[in-house]
Amino acid sequence: MDTWSWPTVSSGKAAKVYVEFGTKGHAGDDAGEAYFQVAGTSDKFSLLGRKPSEYHITVSLDGMSTKTSPQGSTVDLGFRHDAAINWILSADEAGAYWSNSGTTTDWMQQSLGSLGNRTLKEIAMPGSHDAGMSTFTPGTIGANYANTQAQYLDFGGQLLAGSRYFDLRPVISNGQWVSGHYSEVADVWLGGNGQSIADIVKQINSFTSQYKELIIINLSHTLDTDNDYKDLSQDQWNKLFDTLKGINNRFTVNSPGKTDYTNTVLNDFIGKSASVFIFAQLPGGITLGDYANQGFYNQDNFPLFDSYSNSNDANKMEGDQLQKVKDNRNLVADGSKRKDKFHILSWTLTQQPEDVLNFDKAIMNLGVSVFDDLVDKAYNAFTPESFPNVLYVDSMGIRDKPVVFPFDKPRSVATNTDIAALAMAINNGKAGRNSYITGR
């Protein structure tokens, strides 16, 4: 191996290691081994580099097991040239290990023993920005899939990848309810349509029929694209709610008033069944009416901090978002010092005017370009008292560019659940070290 040097990794931290296979014509028999032991325990695992035919890094669980992989398992991490592969390992309060191997589809239910008595303000979860934009149907001149489509996986695929918070933007187009991604620039509307709302409803119901997870849906940016991109009328909002009533397992209470459900513990949502919490960013003059008793809520019921960086520069976005976590999250017992509003970490790059027609800077490409820093840079910046509730991303569940030359359509790329394992690592390695959170 040309480069194979592994450090001691501090508990609760991420380490980045550069690995380089032989480059002088002898790479066919390259091999490397690194041995780790979890301090204070007898638990061990190994990292192995091999190139019998392809470059691969594997994890050998020779002296331990995780919740999803038995002792003796071999986990193939693959290899990405000049890009990261991730091995994420954390332990919950009961001492059980979690990793990004095996099946974590119902990660909330699997970790309910440690998360069940935590409020939503005290839990981290993956989230999907522009969740309905997993496909592109032309809307306006100038819109294309590169500057309009934000997700590679459809709604159901994002659920399987671990996402639990969804930014859904319903619009009326050709008389139908669809997901939309529209912006007004200099009095001109630009954008297009994604997945139909009917299809999303079916995929949510398919998921909740199998998995007892909490799904949070934030309705916003609603428009009537058939009528000059006007805001929805009260009657149109009512018809949208009627359509969404097709979602099973809606979290429903009578007369919720202004109750803040971010203060509700996870057990109250999914202790017995799946739960879908739907809240709407209602414009002035629009009310829920009786839909408030049918599983629909407004922004008073789910107050949150949500401030994106509006930058296409990774360093600026990352610095801005991490500073906002530091400034706005302080989960401590002292109520006079506590800052615990439900926090969205918008780990997203925003196309600027010079990017809109540059397919290489497609929204999905920008999304994957900052994922490695989320696992490394962001995780190390979080503390037990200061961490976000939603890891909010474009390109949920992928890490390789799907938009490449000849730019005729997104190419096929591998999917992964690393972001779910990262959320669990925050819940275990960060929040799990906060006695204010775990002591109740």
UniProtKB/TrEMBL annotation:
GO annotation, biological process: lipid metabolic process
One GO molecular-function entry: phosphoric diester hydrolase activity
The protein's name: PLC-like phosphodiesterase
Source organism of the structure: Polyplosphaeria fusca
Species lineage: Eukaryota, Fungi, Dikarya, Ascomycota, Pezizomycotina
